[in-house]
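Final report, Chapter 2: Outcomes

The project's central promise was a pipeline that accepts a single protein chain and returns its three-dimensional structure in a standardized token representation, suitable for archiving and comparison. That pipeline is now operational. To close this chapter, we reproduce one record exactly as it appears in the project archive, with the input sequence first and the structure output second.
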Amino acid sequence: MNDAARDAYRTDEVADRLGVPYRTVMRAISRGEIGAIKLGRYYVVPRSELERLLGQAKAA
């Protein structure tokens, strides 16, 4: 699926895009640093939140 058409990303996909370990993403979600939605047993990160995180990564 085209990235532009996606509304949310799995946590492992977010970790890959940010270049950090999966556990880092999960810890950031639990601390409230990354906004995520829990769907059953899993979390998904909205596209707008991923774009915000990627923007911060570029600025750093």
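Archive annotation: The CA atoms of residues 15 and 24 lie 8 Å apart.
This record, like all others produced under the grant, will remain available to the consortium after the project formally closes.
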